């Protein structure tokens, strides 16, 4: 058995010079990565803050509009059946007088069958106090309408009632102008007016 001793030994390549050599991360590369990270972080924070600002503003506008509409919706069911705009009404030692910030409506009282009770009247009073818009119902003793004390809206910065006749007993149209303001970090103000017709004249 022969053994061939004529073989060559190929030296291994140096790890520091080949294509597969490895090296550490330089300071410049680290700074570039940090700069990109900071830039992206600032962009995300800016978008988040902008979204929050828009959300708060949108919510405030929604509340302001809702407050105004609540005032209109609270008045509307009582104007159509009203007999007339009353000059004033007294209850519990308090006198409510119709004017620019107060409205008193006189409504026919009705029995359990829905029929009008002759000579009997209910009264609906609307007025502003601070930023609240109130509705009070004072039924006649024989009426089936229920007494009520309700805050229709708490965003009313200002309101004004106006009438188509200087003689309130002859008025057939009421105009209500409302300024509704929703408070908060991003407050919003909404203005609107609506007309109501007394159809039971």
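Sequence proposed for the structure above (201 residues):
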């Amino acid at each position: 058995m022969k053994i061939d001793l004529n073989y060559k030994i190929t030296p291994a390549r140096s790890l520091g010079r080949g294509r597969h050599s490895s090296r550490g991360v330089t300071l410049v590369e680290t700074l570039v990565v940090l700069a990109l990270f900071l830039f992206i972080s600032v962009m995300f924070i800016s978008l988040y803050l902008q979204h929050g600002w828009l959300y708060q503003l949108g919510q405030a506008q929604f509340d302001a509009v809702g407050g105004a509409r609540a005032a209109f919706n609270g008045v509307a069911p009582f104007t159509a059946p009203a007999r007339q705009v009353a000059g004033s009404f007294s209850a519990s030692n308090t006198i409510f007088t119709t004017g620019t910030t107060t409205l008193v409506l006189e409504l026919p009282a009705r029995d359990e069958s829905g029929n009008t009770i002759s000579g009997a009247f209910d009264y609906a009073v609307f007025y502003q106090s601070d930023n609240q818009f109130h509705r009070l119902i004072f039924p006649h003793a024989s009426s089936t309408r229920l007494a009520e004390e309700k805050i229709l809206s708490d965003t009313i910065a200002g309101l004004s009632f106006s009438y188509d006749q200087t003689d309130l007993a002859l008025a057939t149209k009421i105009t209500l102008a409302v300024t509704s303001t929703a408070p908060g970090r991003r407050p919003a103000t909404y203005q609107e007016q609506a007309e109501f017709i007394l159809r039971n004249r």
